[in-house]
């Protein structure tokens, strides 16, 4: 048998060491298992400020394939339509997942909507003043036939909001280095109207009113620890 060279032996040893380190550093502890349980149905009020649930209008329903994917990613989902005294409507969708590992990441609207036959015309980032700080958000305009739907959403990973993919991944790695698997949440509001500037303003007012109606712990669940307003 041909003897193994020192070079190949060292390479093999390094590969085994790297594999061992990867296994040792693989996150195994889910933050959600030790944190207080979350119940979106009771946490989100059915009435707040000038807004009440409009039971006559249902938010967009996912097709069976997308629904199956969402059920694997999320532990809980909440979809409601709210209306105010002026007849304005906001569609709210919140999805919570206790495992934000590589295989179980949040299903973002710019992926979900095209899967439902929509076209994304606009996709940009902005900031939102929550009333207790500032968080980054993403704004879209989705269309399907004559339906024009401006969308505002944000995602959390652990206790931070991250709508930028790079920042989201960095936060995931930060938790991974401590052996923890973070939970995550997607908060989305949308409305059907052609004036996206007016739509985003109404969506911000709605989200701010909703956050103001929550308990401090409920608010933290949705926006983590936002940056102070400057």
Please outline what is shown here:
By secondary structure, the chain is α+β, with helices and mostly antiparallel strands.
Overview features:
two-stranded parallel sheet; alpha+beta; single chain; 230 residues; 11 strands; 9-stranded antiparallel sheet
List the helices and strands and how they pair.
Blueprint: H1 6-25, E1 29-30, H2 31-34, H3 40-43, E2 47-48, E3 51-53, H4 64-73, E4 76-83, E5 89-97, H5 109-115, E6 119-129, E7 134-144, E8 147-157, E9 160-161, H6 165-176, E10 180-181, E11 184-190, H7 196-212, H8 216-223
Parallel strand pairs: 1-10
Antiparallel strand pairs: 2-3, 3-4, 4-5, 5-11, 6-7, 7-8, 8-9, 8-11
Could you please describe the fold and organization of this structure?
With 230 residues, the chain is of the alpha+beta class. The chain has one domain. It is 36% helix and 30% strand. The chain contains eight helices and eleven strands. Strands 2, 3, 4, 5, 6, 7, 8, 9 and 11 form a nine-stranded antiparallel β-sheet that branches. It is globular and about 75 Å long. The relative contact order is 0.17.
């Amino acid at each position: 048998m041909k003897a193994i060279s020192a070079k190949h032996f060292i390479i093999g040893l390094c590969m085994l060491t790297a594999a061992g380190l990867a296994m040792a550093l693989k996150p195994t502890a889910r933050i959600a298992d030790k944190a207080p349980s979350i119940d979106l149905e009771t946490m989100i009020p059915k009435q707040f400020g000038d807004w009440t649930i409009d039971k006559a209008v249902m938010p967009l329903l996912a097709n069976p394939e997308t629904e199956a994917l969402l059920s694997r990613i999320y532990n809980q989902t909440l979809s409601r339509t709210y209306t105010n005294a002026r007849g304005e409507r906001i569609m709210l969708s919140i999805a919570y997942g206790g495992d934000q590992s590589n295989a179980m990441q949040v299903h973002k609207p710019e992926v979900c909507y095209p899967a439902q036959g929509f076209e994304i015309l606009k996709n940009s980032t902005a900031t939102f003043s929550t009333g207790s700080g500032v968080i980054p958000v993403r704004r879209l305009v989705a269309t399907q036939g004559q339906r024009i739907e401006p969308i505002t959403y944000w995602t959390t990973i652990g206790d931070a909001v991250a709508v930028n993919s790079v920042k989201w991944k960095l936060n995931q790695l930060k938790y991974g280095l401590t052996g923890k698997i973070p939970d995550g949440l997607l908060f989305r509001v949308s409305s059907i109207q052609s004036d996206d500037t007016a739509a985003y303003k109404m969506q911000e007012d709605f989200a701010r009113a909703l956050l103001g109606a929550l308990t401090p712990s409920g608010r933290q669940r949705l926006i983590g620890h936002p940056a102070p307003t400057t």
